[in-house]
Amino acid sequence: MVMSKCPGQDTRYWKFEDIKDVECHNCGKNLEFLKTDIKRKCPQCQKIVTNPNFNLECAAWCSFAEQCIGEIAKGMGAPDSLKKKLEEEVEKKLKKEEAEKILKYVGKAWDISQREGTEFLIAALTITYKLIKDEYGEGEGKKIFQEIRKRAEVPRMASDEAMQVLEDLENENFKNSCARTTYEALYDQKIELEEEKESKKGEEGEEKDGKVKRKIIKIDEDLCDGCGLCVPACAEGAIQIVDGKAKLVSEIYCDGLGDCLGECPQGAITIEEREADLFDEKAVEEHLEKLKEEEKELEGCPSCQVSEISREERHGEEEKFSGKISSQLTNWPVKIKLVPPEAPFLKNQEIVISADCVPFAFGDFHRKLLKGKPLLIGCPKLDDKNMYYERLMEIFKHNDYKKVTVVNMEIPCCSGLYGLVKKALEDAESKADLEGISIGVEGDIK
Predict the structure, then answer these.
(1) Mean pLDDT of the region 399-414
(2) How many Cβ atoms from other residues are within 10 Å of residue 259's Cβ?
(3) Which of 233, 247, 270, 397 could form a disulfide with 260 if both were Cys (CB 3.0 to 4.6 A apart)?
(4) CA angle 395, 352, 365 (to 5 degrees)
C-alpha cells in the first residue's frame, strides 16, 4: 500500500525554509512550493515547474520509506544497490553500445552525487531518459524508458520528475540540483548558481562574463599538419580546417569530451581545463543545421546537375595519330560535396577518390587511373572534413564496391584523405578493398 502522506513530514515540525517561492523558468512568475511538492503547473503560462528542493534522500533513513514509495525504498538505504538494479535493466533492454554509453554517464553521476551529497536516483533516470530519447525519438524513447523504470522497480513519480528535470535542462534552468548533476555528468562542466558565484568572488576574484572553468580541447598549431581527420570525429562540428590548420570554430560548440583526440596522428589535440564559454547544445544544433543548409544550396546549383558521360572506346593508334588525348571522365559533378549518394553513375564495381591537385600533377591520370570508373575529388586540407565523412559514408552504404582507390599528393596535409575514406568505409561496414596511391609533386607515383 502506498501512503498519501509521509509521516516523517508532519507540518507541525516544519521550518520557515520548508516553504519557498520558485521562479517559473518560462515566464518568471513566483510559485509557492511546499517541500513535499514535486512539481506545479504555472497558472500564468501553464508550464510545469519542478521543485528544486524536493528529493528522495529521506528514504535512506526514514522508517516509513517502504510504505511511502514502495519496494524501491529497499535500495535507497544502500544507493549502490539501486544503481546496480538500474544498470542491469539498461543492459537487458538496450543494445550493448547504447547500454555502455548510458552506464558511463550514470557512473559519472554516481561519483558526483557521492562527492557533492546530491540526489543520485533522479539524475541517473534523467541521463537514462535523455540518451534513450536521443537514440529512439520522444515517443518510442519514452516507452522504452518506462519499461526499464518498471523492471528496475523505480516509482513512477521518480521517472516523472526525471522527465521534468530534462525539460529544465533543455531550458537551461539549473536551479534543481539534479539538473546540475546531470549536466556535469554529461558534459564535464560544473554549473554554479549565481549565489554560489557571488560567494566565491571575494576568494577567487571576478569571473569573466559568460565563462566558466571547464574542460575544452586545445589544438597545437605547430604540431597540426592540417590532415583534417579530427573534423569528422567531432559530432558537434566544433573543428574546421582554416588556412591549412585545424581550428576550434567556437567554444560553445565543444563539449570537452575529446572524441577528436584519438583521430589526430600528430598528437596536436589535447584537453585542458580553463575559462571558456559554456557548451551550448542548442547552438550546436543550429550550427549543424546551417552547415546542412549550405550543402543544400550548393546541390541546387544548375551546374550540379547529375549526369553520366558516355565515352567511346578509341584505339591507341587512332588517338596517337589524331594528337588528341581522350578524357576518361564519365560523371558530373565530381566534387564530393556536390555528388548525391544515390547518383546513378556511382553504381560501379570500383570508384576513384582523388585529391583535386592530383590530375594537375600526374599527367597520365585519365588513362592509368580513371578509365571506366566514377570519380570523386576534394581537398582534404581546405574543405569541410565532417561533410566529406558523412557524404562518403552514405555513398558507401548505397553502393557495393569491390575496390576503392584513393589518390593523394605526397604532402602531409593531403594524406588525410586516405584516413578519411578508410574511416567512412569502416563505419559504413563496406567490404571493399582499399588502395592508396601517392603522387609526388614532380608527377611521379610514389
Answers:
(1) 89
(2) 13
(3) 233
(4) 155
Are 77 and 180 found together in one domain?
A: yes
Which amino acid is it at 323? G
Torsion of CA 7, 13, 15, 19, to 10 degrees: 40
Same structural domain, 340 and 408: yes
What is the pLDDT confidence band of residue 348, given thresholds at 50, 70 and 90?
confident
Nearest to 264 by CA among 216, 225, 215: 225
Same domain, 392 and 328: yes
Is 182 in contact with 129 (CB distance < 8 Å)? no
The total of structural domains in the chain comes to 3
Write the single-letter amino acid at 395: I
d(CA 228, CA 380): 6
pTM above 0.70, yes or no: no
Q: The domain that contains 215 carries what CATH number? A: 3.30.70.20
Question: DSSP letters along 366-391, please?
Answer: IIIIITTS-EEEE-TTTS-HHHHHHH
pLDDT at 13: 59
Rg for the chain (alpha carbons), in Å? 29
For residue 355, the one-letter residue type is A
Please measure the distance between the N-terminal and C-terminal CA atoms of the chain and give it in whole angstroms. Answer: 79
Please say whether the beta carbons of 416 and 228 come within 8 A.
yes
* DSSP β-ladder status, 39-41 and 269-277: unpaired
Q: How far apart are CA 184 and CA 188, in angstroms?
A: 5
Of 382, 361, 384, 206, give the one whose Cα is nearest residue 294: 384
Going 198 to 200 to 202 to 208, the CA torsion angle's sign is negative
Q: Distance between CA atoms of 173 and 183, rounded to whole angstroms?
A: 11
Q: Residue 145: which residues within 8 A CB-CB, separation 6 or more?
A: 128, 129, 132, 133, 159
Interatomic CA distance for residues 167 and 133, integer angstroms: 12
Residue 382: Cβ-neighbour burial (10 angstroms; 0-12, 13-18, 19+): middle
Helix locations, 188-276, DSSP H: 194-204, 230-233
Q: Which domain holds residue 255?
A: 209-284
> pLDDT tens digits for 80-122?
556 777 788 888 888 888 888 998 998 888 888 878 767 778 8
Q: Could you tell me the pLDDT band of residue 22, with boundaries at 50, 70 and 90?
A: confident
Helices 177-187 + 156-170 axis angle, to 10: 70
> Is 411 found in the same domain as 373?
yes
- Residue 431 contacts residue 401 (beta carbons within 8 Å): no
Q: What are 352's three cell numbers? A: 576513384
